[in-house]
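hey can u check if this looks right to u? its 501 residues, i copy pasted from the old doc so theres a chance i mangled smth
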Amino acid sequence: SSGINAEWPLRPGRAARRGPQLPEGVQKKKTYTGVSTKKLNWQSIPIKNIQKTTFWAKTKELELESQDLLESLSEEFAAKAAKETGPALAVSKKRVKELKVIDPKASQNFGILLNSSLKGLSFEELRILILKCDDSSLSPSVMESLLRFLPSGEDMASLRLLKDEHDELCTAEQFAFMLANIPRIEPRLQAMVFKKKFFEEAKEIKPDLTYVIAACEELKTSEKFGKCLELILLIGNYMNSGSRNAESYGFKLNFLTKLQNTKAHDNRSNMLHFLANLLENRYPQWVNFKDDLRNLEKARRVSDDQLSKQLRGMKKSLTNLKKELEFHKNPESIDDRFGTEMNAFLEYANDEYEKLEATYTNMGKCVAEIITFYGEDPKKTNAEEFFSDIVTFCNDFETARVENAKMKEAKKREEKQKELKEKEKRRKEQKEKERKDFIIDQQGEGEGVLDDLMDALKTGQAYNRDNRRQKPRQTRGKSAAEKRSKKEKSTDCDSALIPLL
């Protein structure tokens, strides 16, 4: 037995301590009886917090008391009268048990816990579960709440002294009394929480380590991604000719996220669109390089700092558990199975931790190797940022491919529209030409009729009705040019004929 829960022997001649004492000079507060008013739901300051120098040690509120004030309070804030029935009357007469050790806040917290997560469990059932380290009915959050709400070591010592007054304690303090009498309750609950969480954390850590190691291997072996980088290096050295970045042997991979910053002359596309087009049209065998990097997206979400913190926490908890087991070699109760349960768990957890730690070490080596593989300093390059930059490039590249396809379709529509406009323009021009030719032909026919009439006037046939009816027009059908030529030859006699018309 550790002896931590043994009752402390009292010194001869000393009475048992019954709770915190009032500071010197502070008088006990007046007790009012027969008051039936509504209550003010405040949170009282614990007596142990009232020192000589505090404000509450100097208050003299009784000097302000008057009978008319009390009567006004009773009248203005009278409580609703209870129905005069047997059960209700019994409840109204029930004495409320006052807190002796724990503060009101702790009492409230225990009350919430008992009416929610621990509802349905008796104090004895919970005590047995904790002694047996049976977490089947206790979640990590419940056990962590118990740890948070545990009374201080001083208060638990005071609670143990109230064994003979157990029935006079309120529910919250009876619960606290039960916890205080479980051997080494705090480290016991800490060990139970660690055991419950260990399996969950190990299950989360394993795949994260695997993702990072696999991503490093993919980046090292992907020929498609490597060829894409070579193409970018070629383009960059050409475009950087004559600058300080000319003739470079390589570039930091964070540059991949900046390709779209280089705009084309039309300001509608950028280098990323150009690269996507180049791979689509000339090197289609490399364009799907993203398919070679399947684990990269998951790997970039893995935080090395978080993994390191989790593993350090595991190691510390395993060390603490090993030390704690030294106190449980001789349990006080046959129900206390802490030593048996936790020794078995410790053996398993140590093996699992060693495997996780070895895999984590291997992951660190893989990350350092891949960063070095691409010519960068692993001490200055953050692995999460390194992976994220490549993932961002892959996603931006795919977006550029989609945008290229849209621009290509838009260009086709634009060319089709242009072709339709040209066709419509040619149709309108042809129609206009035909209209003009028609007008010219009509004018030519009109001029032919006039020429015939002038000929008839010259020969006198215009005055012979019969001849005019029988003789067909000779000039109809002549070309407009011939008719215009004939018209020009007869201009000298027009002036004499016009009056006759």
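Residues 14 and 43 are 33 Å apart (CA to CA).
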